[in-house]
Specification:
The structure holds 2 protein chains of 2 kinds. Chain A has a domain of 254 residues: 3-Layer(aba) Sandwich (Aspartate Aminotransferase, domain 2), CATH 3.40.640.10. Chain A is built from 17 helices and 12 strands. In chain A, the strands form 3 sheets. Chain A has a 7-stranded mixed beta sheet with strand order 1-7-6-5-4-2-3, sandwiched between helices. In chain A, strands 10-12-11 form a 3-stranded antiparallel beta sheet, with helices on one face. Chain B has 3 domains: 56 residues, no CATH class; 264 residues, 3-Layer(aba) Sandwich (Aspartate Aminotransferase, domain 2); 106 residues, Aspartate Aminotransferase, domain 1 (Alpha-Beta Complex), CATH 3.90.1150.10. In chain B, helix 7 links the parallel strand 2 and strand 3. Chain B contains 14 helices and 12 strands. The termini of chain B are far apart. By secondary structure, chain B is α/β, with parallel strands linked by helices. Chain B is globular. In chain B, the strands form 3 sheets. Chain B has a 7-stranded mixed beta sheet, sandwiched between helices. A 3-stranded antiparallel beta sheet of chain B has the order 10-12-11, with helices on one face. In chain B, strands 8-9 form a two-stranded antiparallel sheet. Classes of the chains: A alpha/beta, B alpha/beta. The interface between A and B is large, with 212 and 216 residues.
């Protein structure tokens, strides 16, 4: 099978490049009259002046461009090829959306401008809120959160505020999460001051109802749930789950990481979820930028809307404005109104697809996942835990435990070997309830030929594991660098978290 | 679905769908949804717009956005946490490289060396600017970074109180409140000197105690003046074994003493002005840095990229490190829940800092200092206008008061707007004790002509009252 070869520039750290005196950019000159009118020395008190220039590199513009272009060539994006990172929904990022988000009529607009001068962007944001509310079946949506976890933080704060309003915040100290939950769920609940209770999954990979009944109590503030869950399985008992949580006085929180497969098919709000976050950079196709920026809007049921952060965008006879007069609002979780350039792309995405297109997105993402699952099930060494008969939604989680027992090749090794074929690895070792987990989400963006190739590559790797495990164990071979020493990176003696720290440690040696 | 196969969905073609369904052993895709209870299956289409072609989408959005006015077609004097600066063409080019733009978090470092090295270089250059040893690769913004810094100080010291200046951005203060309340952290306020705006050292000494986890200051302050008693404040914090947190605008650090040189333990701030567009306030780029001290490093929130080597030691490489602090490993015991951050904005800032270099960053600071002092000089000469209200040195931003002119900020703003000038931010409600005052911002993009026109129009407005 045809292998891949990534660029492998031996590109020095930028501090080791350039020459004294080189310039990468010339700033506008201070005008002569200003220079004459102002005595710069008197502008900053002497003891507050910077004595030595910061030790930034000195490069020409040409060198800067070349450096970062070379670095980009040692990176892999969804435009490079299949990126089946489970729970991350690495779909195609439409180019028109990037183009629109780079217009100066958004880039050069300041958040504190007079409302009369920002009617265009306010209209876009207002409509996007309405569309997202419609898609999720919630009453109002707040666009402020900068990421999914930021949305979770807001959501858990809303839980706290809701119980406080009812005079129950002292009592309701517990947030329940399934053992298959994303790590952000327990981390967010903790940030909002809750204790985390874990509920196990049943043999179908769904929340164990009996276990849930035994863990809920009058201490329960709410349950955080991903549906379909991180195994790609729809929580079939969602109706009962909602009932159990609501009857005890708790709130139901929807982690939107896996919203993609139910777009236009079903809505979290209808299932009884009170708070819903949406990962715009997953479901609504905005580029993830190597880690961000994303956006994590939060939709809520009617009785929670009054707690949302300020300002709210309101429409009053064709004029949009920012309303800060919300006495019950929790306040602010960030500056300004959200990651606007990201949200604008989501607006364009919804417009490009419409209802039918969004539904098609969901259906094909599910078709692709089940198609791939069917093919991967045939591979020796891989198993599909938790009811292998059941259809999955957008993703499926295989276990490489058998392969590891047989050959010593682990999920990590498979992941690394995949890179050699120019395929990004799936999410590995997650969810925690699957040993040697390979969590695969193909999304709707990849054509059948590419999915077939992925299945073939997986087949090839597992065969190779039985035939010649060494080669898999030592992978990757075709990426910019071979396996990295992550222990060295985090050991206090060798840890170098900046160039300055690196130089300091190497001088000591 | 319409008669077309959607360009974003290659397998929406009918024959392919059927072939794939055959392989799975189903007759229709709805069989894959059979486990969703009937009552939750959508029965009718949602109320969403009809799908448009790419051309129509472009036209529609461009038309809407054209209703906005930008700093390109109206001189604008707004700052307050989001600042207008020129972004070199190279920055835009690099962050449009789709290998960066369309990548996820670098979970597989061997195939992600590009973004990892770029982020390591961002961290390193932020450290050089701030004179710190460790920086993470981004927080959402300055406000959330402040919330995280306060929580970190409490974890490090085991104390519960954070002292912050009275003069602070109200949005940052609000976010701090929201971030710290669930952790039962007490926020104490330190008064300022009426004449200079500087922190009242007496008030700080009254309030600081062995319960104080950290003292926080901003430099330049929210209202643009330079806090000059940094050594005294740092010493006060040190005397009480409290951490010293400093919030910065990095464009000042070519000319202003870096916080690492006056004892800061944690440095936070906003790196949007280093190469990132304003975008109506987001995305932003929160700075988070600290000293090389394991008790601090272990409690730092967010992703950190480390320099290492390949296993065989043959070549240098980069990877995410100290991940045991993070949510995906440590879950409820993580230092923060942050996962997606502002990585691409950090790459933009890395490119910006590399382009400017040491000379450029100094010239940026000097140009801003010249321009802002020129603006203060012109405005202060207008009868009825006080600019700035505080007797202190200022950088990039300053207060303008209209009390003597008996005009409200709102009136002045509307008249300026009528003249196609956008004045500063109205802070009369945020700080009522400062009267009818606005916060003006001047950067390297404001020309002498624009500053002079602002002064002329203001003079006319004030004289016509």
């Amino acid at each position: 099978m045809c292998m891949f070869k990534q660029a492998s520039w031996n590109q020095p750290v930028i501090f080791n490049m350039g020459k004294n005196g080189r310039r990468g950019h010339i700033l506008p000159k201070v005008e002569e009259d200003i220079r004459n009118a102002i005595d710069l020395d008197s502008c900053i008190p002497k003891h507050m002046r910077r004595e030595n220039l910061p030790k930034l590199p000195e490069l020409s513009e040409v060198e800067v461009v070349r450096h970062f272009v070379r670095l980009s060539e040692m990176n892999y994006g969804v435009d490079s090829g299949l990126y089946p990172l489970g729970s991350c929904t690495m779909k195609y990022n439409p180019k028109i959306n990037d183009m629109l988000a780079s217009l100066p009529t958004i880039g050069m607009v300041h958040p504190y401008q007079d409302e009369g001068t920002v009617q265009g962007i306010l209209e876009i944001l207002y409509k996007l809120e309405r569309w997202l509310a419609e898609i999720t079946g919630t009453y109002e949506v707040c666009l402020h959160p900068a990421a999914g976890a930021h949305g979770e933080f807001l959501g858990t704060l809303l839980m706290l505020t809701y119980h406080k309003m009812n005079g129950e915040s002292e009592k309701r100290r517990e947030v329940i999460v399934p053992d298959s939950a994303h790590g952000t769920n327990p981390a967010s609940a903790t940030m909002a001051g809750f204790n985390v209770m874990v509920v196990p999954s049943d043999e179908d990979g769904c929340v164990d109802l009996e276990a849930l009944k035994s863990v809920v109590s009058e201490k329960t503030a709410g349950l955080m749930l991903t549906n379909p869950n991180t195994l790609g399985i729809f929580e079939k008992n969602i109706s009962e789950i909602a009932k159990i949580v609501h009857e005890i006085g708790g709130l139901l929180y929807y982690d939107g990481a896996n919203l993609n497969p139910i777009l236009g098919k079903a809505r979290p709000g209808d299932m009884g979820f009170d708070i819903v976050h949406i990962n715009i950079h997953k479901t609504f196709s905005t580029p993830h930028g190597g880690g961000g920026p994303g956006a994590g809007p939060v939709g809520v049921a009617k009785e929670l809307a009054k707690f949302l952060p300020v300002p709210r965008i309101v429409l009053d006879s064709e004029r949009y404005s920012l309303d800060y007069n919300r006495p019950h609002s929790i306040g602010k979780i960030r500056s300004f109104y959200g990651n606007i350039a990201v949200l604008l792309r989501a607006y364009a995405y919804i417009l490009s697809l419409g209802f039918d297109g969004l539904k098609e997105v969901a259906e094909i993402s599910v078709l692709n996942a089940n198609y791939l699952m069917k093919k991967l099930k045939k591979i020796k060494g891989l198993t599909l835990p938790y009811n292998s008969k059941k259809p999955r939604k957008h993703e499926c989680v295989f276990s490489a435990k058998l392969l590891k027992n047989d050959t010593g090749v682990s999920a990590l090794n498979i992941a690394k070997r995949l890179l050699d074929y120019g395929v990004h690895a799936p999410t590995i070792y997650f969810p925690l309830i699957v040993e040697e987990a390979l969590m695969i989400e193909p999304t709707e963006s990849f054509e059948k030929e590419e999915l077939d190739r992925f299945a073939e590559v997986m087949h090839e790797i597992c065969e190779e594991a039985y035939r010649n495990p060494e080669n898999v164990l030592n992978a990757p071979h075709n990426t910019a660098v071979s396996r990295l020493d992550e222990v060295k990176a985090s050991h206090p003696k060798t840890m170098a978290l900046s160039w300055r720290m690196y130089l300091k440690k190497n001088k000591q040696k | 679905m319409s008669e077309h196969n959607h360009p974003y969905i290659p397998n929406s073609q009918k024959e392919i769908k059927q072939e794939m369904m055959r392989e799975i052993g189903i007759k229709g895709i709805d069989e894959l949804y059979a486990d969703i209870p009937k009552k939750y299956s959508l029965k009718k289409p949602l109320n969403l717009p009809e799908a448009l072609s790419e051309f129509e989408v472009k036209k529609h959005i461009e038309t809407l956005l054209a209703k906005n006015k930008s700093s390109d077609n109206m001189p604008m004097f707004l700052g307050a946490g989001c600042w207008p600066h020129y972004i070199p063409a190279v920055v835009k080019e690099v962050i449009q490289r789709s290998e960066f733009l369309t990548a996820y978090t670098p979970y597989q470092p061997e195939i992600s060396q590009g973004i990892l090295q770029a982020l390591f270089e961002y961290q390193s250059m932020i450290c050089e600017l701030a004179s710190m040893e460790v920086a993470n690769c981004s927080m959402y913004d300055w406000a959330s970074a402040l919330g995280e810094a306060a929580r970190m100080a409490v974890r490090v010291t085991g104390r519960r109180e954070i002292l912050v200046p009275k003069i602070i951005h109200p949005e940052r203060a609000a976010a701090l409140q929201v971030y710290t309340e669930p952790a039962e952290i007490i926020i104490g306020q330190v008064a300022y000197e009426k004449k200079t705006g500087q922190i009242s050292l007496n008030n700080l000494r009254d309030k600081i105690s062995d319960k104080t986890a950290a003292v926080y200051i901003e430099n330049p302050s929210y209202l643009g003046f330079i806090e000059t008693q940094v050594d005294e404040i740092s010493k006060e914090a040190d005397n009480h074994d409290a951490l010293f947190i400093v919030g910065i605008d990095p464009t000042s650090l070519g000319v202003l003493k870096p916080p690492g040189d006056y004892g800061a333990d944690i440095v936070i701030g906003e790196a949007q002005p280093l190469g990132n567009a304003m975008n109506f306030g987001g995305p932003l780029l929160g700075i988070f840095a600290c000293r090389d001290d394991m008790s601090l490093i272990r409690q730092t929130p967010g992703r950190i990229i480390g320099l290492t080597t390949t296993m065989d030691g043959s070549r240098q490489g980069f990877c995410m490190t100290l991940q045991t602090r993070e949510q995906h490993i440590r879950r409820e015991k993580a230092t923060s829940n942050i996962c997606s951050n502002e990585a691409l904005c950090a790459v933009a800032s890395a490119v910006y800092m590399a382009l400017l270099g040491p000379q450029g960053i100094r010239e940026l600071g000097e140009t801003i200092a010249y321009n802002v002092n020129y603006a203060m000089h012109l405005l202060s000469e207008i009868n009825g206008v006080k600019a700035p209200i505080f007797d202190s040195a200022h950088f990039k931003e300053f207060t303008v008061n209209f009390d003597q002119a008996e005009l409200s900020v709102k009136e002045v703003h509307e008249k300026l707007l009528h003249n196609n000038i956008h004045g500063g931010k109205d802070i009369s409600k945020e700080f009522p004790e400062l009267g009818e005052t606005a916060l003006y911002c001047i950067t390297e993009i404001h020309s002498k002509k624009e500053i002079e026109r602002l002064a002329e129009v203001l003079a006319k407005i004030v004289s016509k009252r």
